Amino acid sequence: MRLTGITAGYEDTTVLRGVDLTIPDNAVVALLGPNGAGKTTLLRVASGLLRPWSGTIELDGRDVTGQPSHALAAAGVCHVPEGRGVFPGLTVDENLRLQAPSRTAVAERVLPAFPRLGERLTQRAGSLSGGEQQMLALAHAYTGRHSAVLLDEVSMGLAPRIVDEIFEHLKVLAASGTSLLLVEQYVKRALELADYVYVLRRGQIEFAGEPWQLGTDAILSSYLGESS
Ligand SMILES: Nc1ncnc2c1ncn2[C@@H]1O[C@H](COP(=O)(O)OP(=O)(O)OP(=O)(O)O)[C@@H](O)[C@H]1O
């Protein structure tokens, strides 16, 4: 997926200013930056939830700019949004069926990777623990072969053990050749997984390169205001 010259915002507020970002095939890209930099907004543009004011979005070499989110989802973009991306009033099974193209996809791809969800199929998603809800949201990425999976702070607010589990799932996805765009508060862990890193600041790309080029913890903390 390639985003070129993306300018976007909300009503009269410009959030992104001429952003270029590429998610190469079979690669993990970390998108870092301080609060309010525009990371979530960029993911929303990439998944078609927010139409950019200018710039282009290419998927598998095809211009998909302006296509709505359901069309981009059908074309292979999977967006795991910030917060628990599940329908709390529906059961685990119903949530999975909304995410997956078929029951076979759930049985063959999702349940082997997330056995605990398999034990709770009839439970309402809203009554799962926070970690289980996030696993359910993350399960979406396992439902098929996606061209790009966009993950917005999927480890936010979870216990360290659950965060470990989430990163294990991300490693498995990456090893299977799925391209990931990762917005993460756990900067070090994200950089361990990433092939490329972008730093977004006030709506502009301030750094693009490989993780080793980003430098030391001190640089990281000054860029990002944290060093976790
Ligand atoms: N629906 C909206 N309407 C108006 N402004 C918005 C809306 N959503 C986000 N913004 C503004 O856009 C800017 C960028 O927000 P965004 O959520 O993209 O940043 P972020 O980098 O993901 O931040 P964080 O790390 O805090 O999640 C912020 O100033 C925010 O207040």
From TrEMBL:
Chain coiled-coil ranges: none
Keyword set includes ATP-binding: yes
Record carries keyword ATP-binding: yes
Keywords annotated in UniProt: Amino-acid transport, ATP-binding, Nucleotide-binding, Transport
Family matches, as CDD domains: ABC_TM1139_LivF_branched
Residue ranges occupied by any ABC transporter domain in the UniProt entry: 1-227
Annotated GO MF terms: ATP binding
UniProt family annotation: Belongs to the ABC transporter superfamily.
PANTHER family: HIGH-AFFINITY BRANCHED-CHAIN AMINO ACID TRANSPORT ATP-BINDING PROTEIN LIVF
Protein name: ABC transporter ATP-binding protein
Organism: Sporichthya brevicatena
